[in-house]
Amino acid sequence: MKCIIPYIVILFVIVACKNINMNEEPIAIAYHDERGRIITSNSLTYLDDKERYDFYPVTSKDIIIGGSFAGGPTVLEVLKLGVRGVIAHESGIGKNNKAIEGLVIAERNRIPAAAVATNSALVSNGKSVSEGVISFANKPVQFMGVTKGMNAFEAAKLMLDSREGTKVTIQYTFDNQLKLVDQKGDTKVYTIWSIGLVKKPYPKDIFCVASHSGVAMAHYTLPVQPRAIFANDAGIAKDSSGVAGLKILDDYGIIAAGVKAMSAEIGNPTSTYEDGIISVVNKSAEQVGIIEGISVKDAIEILLNNNQN
Predict the structure, then answer these.
(1) Which of 12, 81, 134, 198 has the fewest beta carbons closer than 10 A?
(2) CA-to-CA distance for 302 and 290, rounded, in angstroms?
């Protein structure tokens, strides 16, 4: 039986991921010339995920346009690869401006970085972000001629004239380890910044994460098969893409909800757990009594008091 279970889990993940409506090309070279390449990616975390994607090595000449929020943990994912510059999603700006904190980190390292307006592009869709409108630009990218209101793809072409990138190795504190914050019976409550860091199923447990609630979040959640997950609504974003992952998880019976972008710091799972106010729920959440407007802690209390899978 022990030999059979891993194969069942793998089969579930393959079937589930085939049903996720991501771009046909999660990662693509959108443009290249003698200066370098512009690469679009549905998530900034995909570019260094060798387990999922066999992609051309990212180089110091590349500009990355990603469907992730432009926060510290996500932008650092590509800065550590040594890219030339990055454009990501504003995602509602967020509590304490955490959804665009990556631009500040990039600026400290003299790397051009910008974010597109929340409602101008889809979350979890690099191509859409490339069609979005620049809303925030750090000083290095402004020096390259990028301004607020500019098309992101045109901005990226200007960024190709910047100096080649170097790998960034800086200390940034974020919760990349599972942290147990509550428990009742067999059900445990964990915080971690991204569920993509969890590498095995937790079918009885509840996760508070600090990513957006879009398609990429669902992509990473399905292999974990949690009982419930709470994430950031990323300002809802264009076509409700900031919470599109909730419906996907609903199809697999996973309770899921998004918290208001201004109620909790995106990128900080402890804030999701401590401060988050529910803004959007899926049907599976509604069925157990979780509704919009209540706190994440109250929602968790409902789940712990209704300990039925």
Answers:
(1) 12
(2) 7
pLDDT tens, position by position, 137-182 = 999 999 999 999 999 999 999 999 999 999 998 766 666 789 999 9
What are the tens digits of pLDDT across the range 46-70? 887 666 555 668 999 999 999 999 9
What is the structure's pLDDT at 7? 36
> In the Cβ-directed half-sphere of 89, how many Cα atoms lie within 13 Å?
37
**Cα–Cα distance between 241 and 119 in angstroms, integer?**
10
Domain map (residue ranges) of the chain: 15-159, 179-305
Place of tokens 């432009």: 70
